[in-house]
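Worked example 3 (structure in, sequence out).
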C-alpha cells in the first residue's frame, strides 16, 4: 500500500465545492446609472428604516464608544461616528462584526483597529453609497486593486503586504456577513 503523494489530496473535491459556494456569494453585476441611483435610494431608505429601529443614534454611539475604548487613537471612534451620518447600515454592520469578533475570539486592540480602518475605508471607497450587503466581488477587487503599484513605483513590491492584509480582513468579514450562522470549522 502506497501513501498519497500529496498531503490533503483527498480534499480536492471539497475545495471545488467551497470555491463554487464562494462564487455564488459574489456575483459580477454590471450597474447602469439607473441601477446606481436605485441602489442609492435603497441605502437611504434602509438608513431611514434603521434609524427608526434605533430609538436614536445615541445607542449606536454608545456601542461605538465601548468598541473603541482603549484603542490607541480617537481616530477610530471618529471614523465610525462619521460613518453613522453617511451610511448607517454599514456602521451597524461594522459594530456588530467587531462585537462578534470580541466575543468569539477576543481580538486584540491592534486587530480591532485594523479591521475598523479597512472596513471604513472600503465603505468610503464607494462614497458611503453602497451597502456591504450589496457589494460584489468586482467591487472588492476594485478597492484592493487601488493598492497595486508598478515595479518602477515600488521596486521591492511592498504593496503586496498591504493587499494581502486587507484581503484577509475582507475575506473573514464577508464570510461572517454572509454565513454568520455557520460555525467556523477551522477553529
Amino acid at each position: 500500500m502506497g501513501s498519497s503523494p500529496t498531503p490533503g489530496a483527498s480534499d480536492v473535491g471539497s475545495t471545488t465545492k467551497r470555491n463554487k459556494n464562494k462564487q455564488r456569494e459574489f456575483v459580477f453585476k454590471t450597474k447602469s446609472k439607473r441601477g446606481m441611483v436605485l441602489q442609492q435610494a435603497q441605502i437611504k431608505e434602509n438608513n431611514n428604516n434603521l434609524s427608526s429601529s434605533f430609538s436614536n443614534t445615541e445607542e449606536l454611539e454608545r456601542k461605538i464608544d465601548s468598541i473603541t475604548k482603549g484603542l490607541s487613537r480617537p481616530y477610530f471612534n471618529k471614523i465610525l461616528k462619521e460613518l453613522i451620518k453617511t451610511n448607517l447600515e454599514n456602521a451597524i454592520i461594522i459594530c456588530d462584526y467587531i462585537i462578534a469578533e470580541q466575543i468569539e475570539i477576543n481580538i486584540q486592540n491592534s486587530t480591532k483597529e485594523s479591521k475598523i480602518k479597512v472596513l471604513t475605508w472600503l465603505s468610503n471607497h464607494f462614497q458611503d453609497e453602497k451597502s456591504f450587503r450589496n457589494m460584489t466581488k468586482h467591487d472588492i477587487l476594485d478597492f484592493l486593486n487601488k493598492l497595486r503599484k508598478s515595479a518602477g513605483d515600488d521596486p521591492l513590491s511592498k504593496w503586496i503586504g498591504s493587499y494581502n492584509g486587507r484581503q484577509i480582513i475582507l475575506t473573514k468579514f464577508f464570510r461572517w456577513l454572509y454565513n454568520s450562522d455557520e460555525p467556523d470549522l477551522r477553529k
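Notes: The longest helix spans residues 33-53. Residues 34 and 159 are 35 Å apart (CA to CA).
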